Hints:
By secondary structure, this protein is mainly α. Helix content is about 60%, strand content about 5%. The chain has 20 helices and 10 strands. It has a two-stranded antiparallel ribbon. A two-stranded antiparallel ribbon has the order 2-3. The protein has a two-stranded antiparallel ribbon with strand order 4-5. The radius of gyration is 36 Å and the shape is globular. About 45% of the residues are buried. The model is unreliable at about 535-540 and about 565-569 (pLDDT under 50).
Amino acid sequence: xxxxxxxxxxxxxxxxxxxxxxxxxxxxxxxxxxxxxxxxxxxxxxxxxxxxxxxxxxxxxxxxxxxxxxxxxxxxxxxxxxxxxxxxxxxxxxxxxxxxxxxxxxxxxxxxxxxxxxxxxxxxxxxxxxxxxxxxxxxxxxxxxxxxxxxxxxxxxxxxxxxxxxxxxxxxxxxxxxxxxxxxxxxxxxxxxxxxxxxxxxxxxxxxxxxxxxxxxxxxxxxxxxxxxxxxxxxxxxxxxxxxxxxxxxxxxxxxxxxxxxxxxxxxxxxxxxxxxxxxxxxxxxxxxxxxxxxxxxxxxxxxxxxxxxxxxxxxxxxxxxxxxxxxxxxxxxxxxxxxxxxxxxxxxxxxxxxxxxxxxxxxxxxxxxxxxxxxxxxxxxxxxxxxxxxxxxxxxxxxxxxxxxxxxxxxxxxxxxxxxxxxxxxxxxxxxxxxxxxxxxxxxxxxxxxxxxxxxxxxxxxxxxxxxxxxxxxxxxxxxxxxxxxxxxxxxxxxxxxxxxxxxxxxxxxxxxxxxxxxxxxxxxxxxxxxxxxxxxxxxxxxxxxxxxxxxxxxxxxxxxxxxxxxx
Length: 569
């Protein structure tokens, strides 16, 4: 008993010493240039609290490093049919080919580094220049649109990877200009509210749909000749078409991924920070063991090469194939300008909305709905997209996961600087980050879709004018495999349903104007009639004139005149 009390006393003493040390560090830092620059005392924060907030934000958004790299690798990057090992036909990019898959593995390593560097630059810039505790990284949604709608799976789309990067660069530049002249918020308000909400939910469904497929996720959904899609998760799959050859719902990789999804879900239920990471880590760790049915390193030449790279554990990878690959030679295509408009629209809505939400959670908004550092934050956001395009990734944006740091007490840009620092550390673990399997990424994509669906509660489903465009936007994005199609359908339907209101308003206005014109014409006619008949002047019935008498000038002469009629013409 005495030992227990003694041990408790020592623990209390140690805790008290740590608290005193932490307080001393915070007091010292707050009085330095660092503390004054980030306004630690003014915003009622401290150094250690900002550090914890930065770590919480990083843990909740670190999944983007591998998720973004995996999604964008599906585009094929700069890999072409020339990288296929012989004998190779023109369709070697969509069939199993050792040479092409080796090129994809190198591209994925490049994109891991490009994603981390983009997040590093964006987060640090947000902290230093805007002094806001917001983390930035390549956004979910634009990366899926870039891969599956622009470049296509393994380069099967209408636009090359290099041209798509040029689209990102131009879009970022236009975004920067719009932010500089202060039009960003006004443009976002031009889009109907219901379509904006439907767009967010539709992108979530689109991302979840990709996470359920075999090429990028769990493999639960596959092609079917009669119903287009069906449940697969098969033990045996056609490597060329992805069709199920037998053993539905018997894939060990699917069930392992499902366990990871449940781990993430349980963590989010209990508000555990980094829950998205824990599910990915569990599935990835199990998949690293060789000679199992769920291994990421099969007994093949490509599997052996990937395992050899993985065993390096620590290593700095230099970007070789994605940086500086921007090309404008194909800008004469209609698809390029459609992509530019779509990406710009998505960024205006999603990024602006996210930033306002984070500012509201952090308590930065004033009575007019503005917050300190707003203008610079928009500029940093747009500038980060330009940097990302130069590195080979899609649009960079503020992450909603920044709310984790805000809940930890982060109130200054020092939080964002710490987020950037942790992304910098991740650059030295590229061999590990490049070895995350698709069935570990799939659950996180589905969970992102779940999170993005929460906006549907704000749609007025009792109002058909709002409900129909929102539903069409949500439905068509995953079913047509195109974010642009959903946006166009939503806006088009909203305009069509608004024609009745516009017609009624216009008719009422025309009727009102006609009445006013008729009234004015009547008044003019009445005045014209009066002027034709003559001007009626009312005179008194009698009046007197006074003048000097001609006989005696000084004596006044009085003359009285009486009219029989009261009016004279």
